[in-house]
């Protein structure tokens, strides 16, 4: 998969993808022998390699809207990819070294899905052989500009309710655990959600 557009973000509904970070000119490949998915690109004079194990992939769905020149491969993740980097140098073959999330506000770490924008003519491998949850559809996928949701500047996304909610630690811990394991998209955690888990409004045994 050469010269594709890679977007990190969260799928907030069946046909809406919230984009947190975007990179063009990406080369990607499925390594079925090593059970890895790789992406390679250059950004600000640094070469990057992203590595995602198949065990870190929840499901894959291909959106092929009729009459469009592009299609979208949405990959749900259980966690962030491994990041490797090396400086671009003249003729020197530097080794890959482990890197960290270099995006503003650690946006990769706040993403639990990838959206690959591919030309409709690109032939994909037989993904259903390795991914039992692989699906294809002809639906439209709307790409929306998203915003970071984490209140922490660290590598692990953490959310806290706004003023008006005083949730106990064990409930906040479970909410953040669901986000960090890719079970609930961060943008879905809003005031309506907090009201559903507020012991002042809902009995604890019903939460």
Automatic annotation (TrEMBL):
Ranges for domain RDRP helical: 157-206
Domain RDR1/2-like PH-like as annotated: residue spans: 6-141
GO MF annotation, one: RNA-directed RNA polymerase activity
UniProt cross-references to InterPro entries, sorted A to Z: PH_RDR1/2-like, RDRP, RDRP_helical
Superkingdom classification of source: Eukaryota
One Pfam family recorded for the sequence: PH_RDR2
Name of the protein this chain belongs to: Uncharacterized protein
Organism: Juglans regia
């Amino acid at each position: 998969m050469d010269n594709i557009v890679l977007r990190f973000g969260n799928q907030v509904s069946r046909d809406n993808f919230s984009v947190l970070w975007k990179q063009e000119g990406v080369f990607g490949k499925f390594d079925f022998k090593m059970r890895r998915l790789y992406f390679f690109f250059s950004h600000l004079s640094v070469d990057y390699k992203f590595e995602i194990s198949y065990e870190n992939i929840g499901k894959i769905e291909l959106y092929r809207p009729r009459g469009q020149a592009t299609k979208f491969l949405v990959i749900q993740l259980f966690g962030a990819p491994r990041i490797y980097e090396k400086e671009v140098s003249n003729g020197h073959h530097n080794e890959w070294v482990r890197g960290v999330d270099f995006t503003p506000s650690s946006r990769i770490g706040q993403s639990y899905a990838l959206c690959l924008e591919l030309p409709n003519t690109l032939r994909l491998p037989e993904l259903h052989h390795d991914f039992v949850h692989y699906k294809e559809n002809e639906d439209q996928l709307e790409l929306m500009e998203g915003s970071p949701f984490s209140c922490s500047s660290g590598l692990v996304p953490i959310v806290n309710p706004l003023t008006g909610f005083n949730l106990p630690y064990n409930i906040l811990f479970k909410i953040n655990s669901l986000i960090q394991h890719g079970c609930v998209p961060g943008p879905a955690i809003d005031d309506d959600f907090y009201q559903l888990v507020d012991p002042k409004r809902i009995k604890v045994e019903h939460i």
